[in-house]
Amino acid sequence: MALTVPLAVLALVALVAPGLGAAPGCDYPAHRWCSSRDTAVACQVESRCPLLPRPAAAPVELSLYYESLCPACREFLVLKLFPTWLLLPEEMLNITLVPYGNAQERNVSGKLDFQCQHGPEECLGNMMEACLMHEAQNFSTYFAVIFCLESGSSVTKNLEACLQIYAPEVDIGRISACVQGDTGVALMHHNAQLTEALDPPHQYVPWITINGKHTDELQAQAEASLLGLVCHLYQGEKPEVCGGSKAPKIPPGCRR
């Protein structure tokens, strides 16, 4: 009569068979080698533990280099970036906002001065949003306020109203002090450095990098279907919303 051996026993035999044992120095008994990923790593038997949970996938990293008054920037942020962020789980997409764009930084009598493509009001809007990010710190908080500013009638005149709706806990006085003081200048200088360090150099805004890279293809895909692009690139388990997405292209960016 044939001998029937339980599968669990066969698996254990395979683990402890000559030449297939755990790594030297593994202090765990064989029946615990697959009890957790840390244990499997310590005993160098990950490949023989198929039921271990997969490590969490890294989020897709998206950086948006933009100007507060650029029409194409506002449209991308309001109609593509913000809705995509709302639809996806937090762990799928990590966003960095850099308000500066095609601005120019000058040293005037020892003080930094900024000139912006759409005039002084845009410089004010850029600095307001940079100071908002600095003061609020929490991305979910300041992104909602920036969405409110960029989707409204005036980026520079609606801060108080947007804070009341989306972030009443943020002190508008601290943001104003930042804008009017040295902190705001330092934040804009930092954004200038980030923008100038882009490789390849930016040629227009919005300028989008995905996982630290910018190509014409990635830019076009992000503008055509940001949700679809993020869903495609994310390596972890994907939500139902990733079943497919198509969207019209946004207007050409603000070139230098």
TrEMBL record:
Protein EC: 1.8.-.-
Pfam families: GILT (PF03227)
Subcellular location: Secreted; Lysosome
GO MF assignments: oxidoreductase activity, acting on a sulfur group of donors, disulfide as acceptor
Signal peptide stretch: 1-21
Broad class of the protein's primary localization: secreted
Keywords: Disulfide bond, Glycoprotein, Immunity, Lysosome, Oxidoreductase, Redox-active center, Secreted, Signal
Main EC class the enzyme belongs to: oxidoreductase
Quaternary organization: Dimer; disulfide-linked.
Protein role: Lysosomal thiol reductase that can reduce protein disulfide bonds. Facilitates the complete unfolding of proteins destined for lysosomal degradation. Plays an important role in antigen processing.
Family per similarity comment: Belongs to the GILT family.
Protein name, entry field: Gamma-interferon-inducible lysosomal thiol reductase
UniProt organism field: Loxia curvirostra (Red crossbill)
Gene (name only): Ifi30
